[in-house]
């Protein structure tokens, strides 16, 4: 069972916490993590690209010239792909790029990503994260004392509005909740910062 230090908002170590090996000490399966990242990026794609084929381009209903006797190559329509203004061969059409992963695969990928952060000493636990008012400067001070510049901050619940609103304008910082962590975000940010309550929530949700 891994043990990590717990810090307060002033950057002082105030204790330790034991992490559940079922979440933070599993085998890191890179193939599942890779698949989870691909799935996340594919699900973000709009897939709205479109070009017209020869059947969709306006005009070209009449044969340009007769089949034989003109000296020209035979043509059936001025909207064929070889003509200027003609249709596109194998034109892209709107499509859905998303694909699904099994629930067990997604959980294994997330557990592997969190485990990798623990192994690299990139998981920081703080005892509590609360601000008295909405102030970006106060949130930035917390990140500065913890020496963080690109961090994923994990909160227990969605009602911590002062922290959420104070962090939204800070570059390279993203806030998420314990029940909606994505593998992509865990890997994208250098450090994962979580509260003790959020750690317990993660262990409850993903155990």
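-> sequence recovered:
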């Amino acid at each position: 069972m891994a043990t990590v230090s717990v810090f307060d908002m002033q950057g002082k170590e105030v204790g330790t916490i034991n992490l559940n090996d079922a979440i933070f000490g599993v085998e890191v399966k890179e193939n599942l993590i890779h698949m989870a990242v691909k799935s996340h990026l594919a699900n973000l794609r709009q897939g709205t690209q479109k070009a017209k084929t020869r059947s969709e381009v306006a005009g070209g209903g009449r044969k340009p010239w007769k089949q034989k006797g003109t000296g020209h190559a035979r043509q059936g329509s001025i909207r064929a792909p070889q003509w200027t203004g003609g249709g596109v061969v194998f034109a892209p059409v709107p499509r859905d790029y998303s694909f699904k992963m099994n629930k067990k695969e997604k959980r294994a990928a997330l557990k592997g990503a969190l485990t990798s952060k623990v192994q690299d000493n990139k998981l920081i636990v703080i005892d509590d994260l609360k601000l008295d008012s909405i102030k970006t400067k106060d949130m930035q001070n917390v990140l500065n004392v913890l020496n963080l510049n690109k961090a994923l901050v994990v909160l227990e619940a969605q009602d911590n509005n002062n922290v959420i609103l104070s962090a939204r304008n800070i570059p390279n910082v993203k806030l998420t909740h314990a029940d909606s962590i994505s593998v992509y975000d865990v890997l994208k940010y250098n450090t994962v910062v979580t509260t003790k309550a959020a750690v317990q929530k993660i262990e409850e949700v993903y155990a």
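The chain has seven helices and six strands.
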